[in-house]
Model the fold of this input.
Amino acid sequence: MAKFLEISPQPNYKEVESKVLKFWKSQNIFAQSEAKAASKGEFVFYEGPPTANGQPAMHHVLARAFKDLFPRYKSMQGFHVTRKGGWDTHGLPVEIAVEKKLGLTGRNHGATRAEMEEFNKLCRESVFANIQDWNTFTERMGYWVDLEHPYVTYHNDYIESVWNLLKRLWQKGLVERDYKVVPVSPRIGTTLSANEIADGYRDVNDPSVYVRLPIRLGTMPKALKAELEHQNVSLENLENPALVVWTTTPWTLPSNTLAAVNAELEYVLARSPQGHVIVAAGAVERMSQLYKDLPPLEVVARFKGSVMEFLEYHQPFPESFEELKLEGKAHFVALADFVTDDDGSGVAHEAPVYGAEDLALGRQYGAPLCFGTDKNGIMQVTEAKGKFFKDADKDLIRIMKERGVMYHAGQLLHSYPFHDRTGDPILYFARPSWFVRTNKMRANLAAQNQKINWYPPHIKDGRFGNWLENNVDWSISRERYWGTPLPFWKSEDGDLHVVGSIKELSELTGRDLSSLDLHRPFVDDITFDLNGKTFSRVPEVLDVWFDSGAMPSAQWHLLLEADGSAQRQENLETFKKHFPADFICEAIDQTRGWFYSLHAISTLLYDSPAYKNVICLGHLVDEKGKKMSKSLGNVVDPLPAFDKFGADSVRWYMFTASEPGDTKRFSERLVSEGQRGFVNTLWNVYSFFVLYANIDNPNLSNAPNIEQRPEIDRWLISRLEQTKEVMTKALDHYDARGAGKALDKFVMEMSNWYVRRNRRRFWSQDGTVDSSAYATLYEALVTCAKLAAPFTPFLAESLYQNLVRNQDSSSPESVHLCEWTNFDASRCDLNLISEMNAVLIVVELGRAARAKASLGNRQPLPRALVYARNSSDVTALTRLKDVALEELNVEDMEFLTGVTYKVRPNLPVLGKTLPSDAKKLMPQITAALANPEIAARVAENLNAGKIETLEIDGVNIELTLEKVLIDAEAPAGFESALSEGFLVALDTNLTPELKLEGLKRYLVRMVNQARKDAKLEVSDKIELRLELEGELREAAQEKRESLALETMCSSIEFGEPEAGDFVVALEDGGRLGLTKI
RNA sequence: GGGUGGUUAGCUCAGUUGGUUAGAGCAUCCCGCUGAUAACGUGAAGGUCCCCGGUUCGAGUCCGGGACCACCCA
Done:
């Protein structure tokens, strides 16, 4: 057998990993893994595209660790996995980055065609500004993804596929134009995203006005009329009856079309200083306080909000409808769930064009849209026409006072969003917008969702399911510049034509447009004639979520209409092969992002989910549970962490630290714990193996068959098989953590039990090499490398190269090209595993007993007395007696008899077998068994195989060995320990021989410590001189041979150390000296 | 305001269908062991299982109510 490469027991993971990276690169291992024969077909994975112009951060490591693991696993299992990279390149983040670079603050950079052209050019250039960082990051963490052929959302091919998709939606009648309320920065008239407003909230003083809306008595709904009559209210005697509404935005009052009440709330008719008013019952007290010097509101009738529906009123600015030439039914009471009586009057003023909920309500009641301002916030109606909306408040309040409809005008300090770049208050404003009618497909969206396996499962009917249930139509248009232009062409009179490909557009225009850049402004120049009308493009671009949601087809440049070209046909085949995905994985914020856009598009077009399994990760937070953000300064950069701990340790942490769906805390300290637990332990076993294999040069191919190896070897192999089984099952259920924990447990046992117990077998004496031990540990290590490959690809590769590839050049070139090792039941002796568990418990107890007796493990003891609860454990301990004896350093083991017993009911078992009325007797049963005489009788009879019956309260309780727990108590005079039905007692009477042996072991330890301190190699031989008195001298003389053997010592002399010896003083005044020879 | 998840040792987390003395790793201390090991072993210390109520012979676990944290939506 060739020598293994020598390795350091304390590796520099940065070096180890960079060596592996070089190897992967030079041998094209990733490409090979993509190219290798796949017996099981395709495992479909979709890469969720990151925004390339951001910086890679730790949360990308989290997602990518999982996105890497399953493809690696499936590939080893014999699937082919296409791992096409992708980049999200359009949209606001890019535009904002460019705006910042240009120093544009609130200027409308799309005002002219030339400006827009320049702006989009800069956007395109900036998209990949950080691409180098991404490439470095991707490679360094060992994330295998094809970055040479990624899909890029701004490429013409991609856009064309998205157009094609939109056309198909249009043909299905799922595209329509409507209004949508969006936050707008007035003056520049730009739509803002939620992120842009999030930081802009400020506390400001705004008007707080209560306005009277006189009711039209003649239109009073019957239900309300009946209520009032029932409560003896005479309509004729009412004084100026009015609804009172409350608002902090008087400038929206001219746009009022409805007043809203909550159907379930209680409302009242009350006498106020200004006549009769209708307000919420919960607002009476508050409104009485408005005029403290005047009498409070006096309730004259009470009724539910629902009876007021369709009650009409006079709105304070009737001129709005005239000036805007509006028609249609408006100015009546509508019912709305969102109305509360927590503030104001409990009656909401509705100006639908200035609020999302209000718009929906207005639509529901069919009220016309009244635009009191334009999108730049300039008033279009009333005397205040031409004023900026915020400046109009004063005039409008004055007018309302003049008209006698102002109930009360005050001020209110509240928080309101401002646009930080212009300083203007945000205007929420209904803009024409394009929608995909997902709401119509709501039932199917939910049905398709039921086919998806969500990890964690609660997302399915929780966050994602709820989101689908409350689905509203998907607003797909944005009034921006850098994005996929909507392929919507409109004629002047409103006819719509959706273009599905460049070829189609070429045919429509009669020009070859195959080299047209599909972005604005170029595409805006294209017009065509159809049906005698001229069509030009609508100005909007597409929501970027639609871009990424289109990737299943757009990444393959799918154009559905066959045109006879081989390329189109091939793309279609490729798409079919890669749809739907078997697996995707992103963080939980994508439930409303990519998870949704994939799902919606796929449901609408293909009547299928887009993915079958999805891991939805929790967010990464800092050590204290705080969100990682630049402003808090708690961001951990991935690259330095990779260098410090190794990418493997960071990955390992991501898999094993907590459930994937839980919020995960991250810090260097936590990563280093995982490193010490798993990565270092595996490495240590590996380095142990290499160290001794290189000395002993075992012939592994000549090792005995598994069946002929010692039990401890078969035990390790059995545990190895068991680990394979658990891991495979876990990974098949996308349970990375479960698989990782199983591997971790195995590595711990291999190190702390197998290697520790068998150290001496790897240390050949008189030239006999224990090839069983070597073959067993070798197999365990190689298998660990394969099992760890998807988790810690560098470590796995490193082990594999040295242990396998360097020995056998016919083996696969990389661990990642190996087959996944499958469970082999014939090699897994479950019985042996449980027997070993019994030994482990007994050893543990023996050590505890030693500790109680203050007897160090080096002192051999004559006898251990063991009690085991059941006979199979007795068999096990008898078979594996030697292991226990050696580990406990005792000469003999006997089974205890004559113990006293403690008996308790085995509750889970007994509870199930008792009839329900007898279960109440449980406390009495426990009490009865606590009686020593009953306990002794029950224990002895049950142990003898008889069945015992207890009579309690006239009920016969039949007891069997399974239904009770019997513990033994040690006879007096022994140190003992007790657990899980086992008892271990130690006989601490030392014979002179045992004493000498203990002393010898002390000497061995001192000599070996001295060798270590003298920096000798393991294989160095020494001369030893011992200057000893009394017992120690006697022990050294008596045990001279074994002392020499265990210290690699060729000669022992008794006397003073010589000059040049490495000298160590001993406890009792003696000295030892040694010299290397 | 609505939704989802969470709350168990100083820290990070397990805890299966309700059942025995609620566990592991890390950290601390004592002792021990050690020629792979920066490792390991024994023991100690550390818990009102967030709170209140209910169901039950029995609740960390099931039910109801509440508090707090995180995220999403409004």
User: Anything to note?
Assistant: DSSP finds 38 helices and 40 strands in chain A. The two ends of chain A are 29 Å apart (CA to CA).
